[in-house]
Amino acid sequence: MKKYIVFCFLVALLPAAYAACTIPTENTEIMETAVFCPGIYNIENGIKIAKDGIAIECNSSVLSGNGIGYGILAKGRQDVAVKNCNVSNYEIGIYLDSTNKSILVGNHLSKNKYGIALFNAFGNDVDGNILAGNADDKIAFLPSQAGDGKGQAETQKKDISSPHKVMEEVISIKKPFLKENEVLDEVNYIFSKYFNLTQENLEIKRDVFYNESDKSTRIALHLMPKKMLLNVSVYEKIPKCVSAYVNEILIETSGYEVVRNDPLIMWTFPRLEGNSKISYKVFKRIDEECKNLLLAFGIAAGLEEFAEEKSPSINYMLVISFVMAAAIVLYYINRSSRRA
């Protein structure tokens, strides 16, 4: 209800918009709240919402495609609204990709593969629309990207990664001011100085257990250092077949940072000198192929040999021996003084 009120407020901001309505054309990017002129528009490449916090009032106009791509796309947006649009003959009529807290209301979707589809999108209100005559008349929650104009790709792609690619991602996020070649130089430096040494001295084993009672899968990483590791970062790259978004994960081990919601998670340890465990849960079953896509590795800034434990019995015997020797010496000194 609140989102609907917000939408009405956004549209009310432009009471004169009907007098100066917008005619949608190929690849139109909507940069501000807009009202479309009534009509039928044959648009192969659809409309993109290019800014946060704006609304589109289609005014019952019709957007018609040629069976591919999308009619209206909001990608990476927040708080947008789409109202009273007739969208037909696309792969996806209205597509919310990584778009949150938005509203779709009063739209009529027909003759599309998907009328409304969401990918990595949360907190949206998509009720109050009519989906009829589409290949799928249910709102689709896609596990992978779709609507790119070339037809939907496989519903579940292999999310293959590597430690080097993950570190490129980390450095790019942590230091956005670096150029691409500078990012690669820093990653290569980290690998040459720290990565291989860490791999030789840190074993990571993974357990994946499905709990039938709550339909959850617990993923655990067992960290087993061979030497004392200092300033350790443990990275876990999670493929989308496990989770599309970090908010869908219950992280059970503290001391973590969400590097990227994609998801990429990092745990840090100032010192790692004994076996430790990291664990998290997802509320679904994971197949073997998906398990094999999970990637974990550690990078430590330094290491030390484990300190050898000194035998307390040896120290104790040294003290006893010293005391006994001192007692004997005192005995003879005292005895000599008495004779004198």
Strand and helix order: HEEEEEEEEEEEEEEEHHEEEEEEEHEH
Task: Give Rg in angstroms.
Answer: 32 Å
If strands are numbered along the chain, what order do they take across the biggest sheet? 1-4-7-10-13-15
Enter the CATH topology name of the largest domain.
Immunoglobulin-like
Proportion of β residues? 25-35%
- Helix count equals 5
- Report the count of strand segments: 23
> Mean pLDDT, as a whole number?
83
Q: What helical percentage do the residues reach?
A: 10-25%
Structure characterization notes:
With 340 residues, the protein is of the alpha/beta class. It folds into two domains: 2-141; 163-304, Immunoglobulin-like (Sandwich), CATH 2.60.40.2960. It is 23% helix and 34% strand. The protein contains five helices and 23 strands. The protein has helices at 2-12, 163-174, 180-201, 288-291, 312-339, and strands spanning 29-30, 34-35, 40-42, 47-49, 55-57, 62-64, 70-75, 81-83, 86-88, 92-97, 103-105, 108-110, 114-119, 130-131, 140-141, 202-211, 216-225, 228-237, 249-251, 256-260, 264-272, 276-282, 295-304. The strands form five sheets. A six-stranded parallel β-sheet has the order 1-4-7-10-13-15, with no helix packed on it. A five-stranded parallel β-sheet has the order 3-6-9-12-14, with no helix packed on it. Strand 16 (202-211) and strand 17 (216-225) form a beta hairpin. The chain is elongated. The N and C termini lie far apart (110 Å). Mean pLDDT is 83; it is low at 11-18, 144-158 and 308-314.
Give a quick summary of the entry.
The chain has 340 residues and is α/β, with parallel strands linked by helices. It has helices at residues 2-12, 163-174, 180-201, 288-291, 312-339, and strands spanning 29-30, 34-35, 40-42, 47-49, 55-57, 62-64, 70-75, 81-83, 86-88, 92-97, 103-105, 108-110, 114-119, 130-131, 140-141, 202-211, 216-225, 228-237, 249-251, 256-260, 264-272, 276-282, 295-304.
